[in-house]
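Hi R.,

As promised on Friday, here is the backbone we talked about, encoded as structure tokens. Could you run it through your design pipeline when you get a chance and send me back a sequence?
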């Protein structure tokens, strides 16, 4: 098997065993870098939250257990990786057992618990290197570290700790840490700015994406998915959607992620086919009427996909027929969005998956809005 880059992270409270661990690591792997990292005290808990993808407030058990002082990272090369299934904190996973078993041994040496972190797979290495150092694996392999020397101490918070320089900076990090796809309107992105509207993004791990991006929720209600992220000192608005939220059929959402591709601009977008039919669905089901902008994009995509359209005369019935045919062919159901702020155009839907709770909630909200307006 091809050699792999991995890393061990020794938290401050495991430092009494640091030299012994370093010696043992060197027996199994080639140590490429040994770096001591210092996070600022005021950002330590936020950095932990972003790194682990779970909410860890100041003075959490995790912070007290690991210590909030300097920590050491060993970046290693495994020339003979071996993978097997192991029970992890996230269930049974196929992991590099050379890394996994050493991590377990070092945790026992340091009194148990989680004072030692290690990457179990290449994907996790990509995640950790990007967040800790803003580096790709290829940069590590090519020793592209600028002036950073081995066994040097660096003072830096996690990537994005003070906000994002631009959209590119955000997506570079997301690309290495979480699966996502932009649903539409990326044609409107400007490289260093995005002020108009919001960005619709789908992920299979919304909690991790929220913590990594440092997204802030706009509305208290958990059904609303509107957030803002600070980019270049500005608030950029995102709708962060998840598989199973009924914005689209969940099987279709999984297909979106499976078929996604990396655009030359540096972010993941839908395949042309998924973009065409999801935009068609959005324009018909989530809007009162199809916009001219969407129609223009659909016509352009139809030519790329060589979809045979009847003579087009801005007749919505044609679009409805194309959509329904596609949905039936792929056994995708039209679904009522759980996010009640999303319009659901029942007048254009012949058949859809019933969701009594969501539909009742929508009716109740409509009544409340009407009452509120009447009182005003």
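Update: got your reply. Pasting your designed sequence below so it's all in one thread:
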């Amino acid at each position: 098997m091809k050699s792999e880059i991995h890393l061990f992270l020794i938290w401050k409270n495991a430092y009494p065993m640091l030299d012994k661990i370093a010696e043992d690591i060197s027996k199994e792997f080639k140590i490429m870098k040994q770096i001591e990292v210092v996070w600022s005290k005021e950002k330590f808990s936020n950095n932990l939250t972003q790194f682990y993808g779970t909410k860890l407030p100041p003075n959490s058990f995790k912070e007290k257990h690991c210590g909030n002082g300097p920590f050491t990272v060993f970046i290693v090369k495994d020339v003979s990786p071996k993978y097997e299934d192991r029970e992890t904190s996230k269930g049974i996973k196929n992991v590099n057992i050379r890394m996994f078993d050493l991590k377990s041994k070092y945790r026992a040496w340091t009194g148990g618990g989680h004072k030692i972190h290690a990457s179990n797979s290449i994907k996790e290495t990509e995640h950790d290197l990007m967040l800790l150092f803003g580096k790709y694996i290829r940069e590590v392999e090519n020793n592209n570290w600028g002036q950073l020397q081995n066994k040097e101490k660096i003072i830096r918070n996690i990537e994005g700790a003070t906000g994002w320089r631009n959209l590119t900076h955000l997506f570079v990090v997301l690309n290495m840490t979480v699966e996502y796809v932009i649903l539409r309107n990326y044609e409107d992105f400007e490289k260093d700015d995005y002020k108009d509207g919001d960005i619709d993004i789908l992920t299979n791990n919304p909690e991790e994406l929220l913590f990594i991006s440092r997204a802030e929720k706009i509305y208290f209600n958990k059904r609303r998915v509107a957030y803002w992220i600070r980019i270049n000192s500005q608030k950029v608005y995102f709708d962060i959607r998840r598989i199973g939220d009924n914005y689209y059929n969940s099987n279709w959402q999984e297909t979106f992620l499976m078929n996604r591709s990396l655009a030359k601009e540096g972010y993941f977008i839908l395949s042309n086919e998924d973009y065409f039919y999801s935009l068609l669905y959005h324009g018909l089901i989530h809007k009162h009427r199809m916009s001219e902008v969407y129609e223009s994009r659909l016509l352009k995509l139809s030519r790329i996909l060589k979809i045979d359209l009847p003579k087009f005369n801005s007749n919505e019935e044609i679009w409805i027929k194309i959509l329904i045919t596609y949905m039936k062919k792929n056994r995708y159901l039209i679904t009522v969005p759980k996010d009640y702020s999303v319009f659901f155009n029942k007048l254009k839907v012949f058949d859809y998956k019933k969701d009594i709770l969501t539909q009742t909630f929508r009716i109740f909200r409509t009544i409340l809005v009407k009452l509120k307006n009447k009182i005003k």
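One thing I noticed while checking it: Residues 82 and 98 are 7 Å apart (CA to CA).

Thanks again,
M.
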